[in-house]
């Protein structure tokens, strides 16, 4: 139960009223945004989930191998600029860093043809929910009660009884314990997409970015922002890199259920290297004001039949609209303070 509660705020985006798979009057983008505010409180100017974060810039150097399965310009051999954001799950912009909190990495690839590819990834290999309703219910079941500061065990037990897919997903997640920090974290796209190449052949794909550096020496494991501080110090010494790996699905592999992993023996493609060269305190003009909508896709990538994708897109938009209209407060993570 504790592990389930710990990933309650995983931001594979939020969820939506879209496509006919949500009951009218039941789940809507405003209701999802309201639920985040109910659990975490309202924090004007910040994302409703993954509120604590740090902007980043870098490049993606494509090997050209990805063009075998996708015609998007970003997979042609060469380099394109990338804007990123490292984050922690949850709606508290000033929460203390904790080793077990789910970490996020959002990326915006700017293709040479002007088209963008946006993705929001997290550091667990599968998601805990297969439907928007499941996520919505788990978020409430995981809300800490004032008496203990932990979720109500009866509510959580009742939720798990209704959702065996979450129980199965948690077993997979427990087999992949978190790394020491952001720099040595793998990040996973979780949902399946359809990739189409220049010849018109289409295949299901999932992706991950795998770290190319080992864990650094922790700056401190007791400071409130120690995970971000360590990332800032590491990037002050050298760029950090991750390898973008595409996993090609085969017939029978689930494309509509993010709780289920694909077999390990599936073919992979080394698409290139993402290099982060610097991080920035969140401010106007950087990743603070980017909506990492997973359905902002270039020609050659389309959504699969996973119901979470349309949901993520719609509630990301609702959260973005709300915070865009609100006064902004300083970010908890301040690069200049760390490097003084």
From TrEMBL:
It holds the Pfam family Catalase. GO terms for biological process: hydrogen peroxide catabolic process; response to hydrogen peroxide. Its EC number is 1.11.1.-. One of its GO terms (molecular function) is catalase activity. Has an organic peroxide-dependent peroxidase activity. Residues 2-337 form the Catalase core domain. InterPro entries: Catalase, Catalase_core, Catalase_sf, Catalase_SrpA-type_pred. Belongs to the catalase family. Heme binds at residue 316. Its cofactor is heme. The active site is at 50. It comes from Mycobacterium nebraskense. GO terms for cellular component: cytoplasm. This is Catalase-related peroxidase. Keywords: Heme, Iron, Metal-binding, Oxidoreductase, Peroxidase.
